[in-house]
Specification:
Structural class: mainly alpha
Organism: Paenibacillus arenosi
CATH topology of the largest domain: Rna Polymerase Sigma Factor, Chain: A
Number of domains: 2
Keywords: DNA-binding, Sigma factor, Transcription, Transcription regulation
CATH class of the largest domain: Mainly Alpha
Protein name: RNA polymerase sigma factor
CATH superfamily of the largest domain: RNA polymerase sigma factor, region 2, helix turn helix motif
CATH architecture of the largest domain: Orthogonal Bundle
Helix content: over 70%
Strand content: under 5%
Family: Belongs to the sigma-70 factor family. ECF subfamily.
InterPro entries: RNA_pol_sigma-70-like, RNA_pol_sigma-70_dom, RNA_pol_sigma70_r2, RNA_pol_sigma70_r4_t2, RNA_pol_sigma_r2, RNA_pol_sigma_r3/r4-like, WH-like_DNA-bd_sf
Shape: globular
Length: about 190
C-alpha cells in the first residue's frame, strides 16, 4: 500500500487513480469531522466534497511537514469556519433546517429509539457549544488529536485549546445532566 506522500507524488505526475485512492483513504475522517461540527448530513456531504476540491487545488502547497491527514483536517477546519461565515449558513439558521435519520426496519425499535435518542442528545449538546469549544472537543475526543496538533490547526496556543476543552466539557456535563436541553443551561448561565 502506498503512503500518502507516494500518492501525492503520483497525483502531481497526473495520476487520477492515485487521487481516488487518496480521497477514499481520508473521506471518512473528513466527513465525520464536518458532520460532527455542522450537525447536518447533507451539508456535511457537500462541504466534504468542497474540502477535497480545495485539497486538490492546493496540493502543490503541501510540503510533507507533519502528517498529510492533519494538513487535510486543517483545510476542513478552515472550510467549516468559512461555512459559518456564509450566507447559506445564516439562511439555514433562520429557517431552522433539521436533519433526521431513518431507522433500519430490521432492528429492535425500542433499542434503536433509545440509542438514537442518546446519540441525538449528545450530538445536540456538542452542537450547542460555542464554535471554538465544539471544535476543540471534536478534534480532541472524536479525532484523537493532541493539544499541540489542535493548536496548530486552529492557529491558537496550547493553553487556549486546553481551556476550550475544559470549558466545553464542563458545559457538556451541565447540559447532559439537565436532560440534554441546552436552553435549560442557557437560562442558568
Amino acid at each position: 500500500m502506498l503512503t500518502d506522500e507516494e500518492l501525492i507524488a503520483e497525483i502531481r505526475d497526473g495520476s487520477q487513480a492515485a487521487m481516488e485512492v487518496l480521497v477514499k483513504r481520508h473521506y471518512s475522517l473528513i466527513y465525520t469531522y464536518i458532520y460532527r461540527k455542522i450537525g447536518n448530513h447533507h451539508t456535511a456531504y457537500d462541504l466534504t466534497q468542497e474540502v477535497f476540491i480545495k485539497m486538490m487545488q492546493s496540493l502543490d502547497k503541501y510540503r510533507q511537514q507533519g502528517k498529510f491527514e492533519h494538513w487535510l483536517l486543517k483545510i476542513a477546519v478552515n472550510h467549516c469556519l468559512d461555512y459559518y461565515r456564509s450566507k447559506h449558513y445564516r439562511h439555514q439558521q433562520a429557517t431552522g433546517e433539521l436533519d433526521t435519520n431513518i431507522a433500519d426496519d430490521n432492528s429492535n425499535v425500542w433499542d434503536l429509539f433509545q440509542s438514537q435518542y442518546q446519540q441525538e442528545q449528545a450530538r445536540q449538546a456538542v452542537l450547542s457549544l460555542p464554535n471554538n469549544q465544539r471544535e476543540a472537543i471534536i478534534l480532541s475526543y472524536y479525532h484523537d488529536l493532541k493539544i499541540k496538533e489542535i493548536a496548530d490547526m486552529t492557529c491558537t496556543n496550547e493553553s487556549t485549546v486546553k481551556s476550550r476543552i475544559r470549558a466545553g466539557l464542563s458545559k457538556l456535563k451541565q447540559i447532559l445532566l439537565s436532560g440534554g436541553d441546552e436552553r435549560d443551561y442557557r437560562k442558568q448561565g
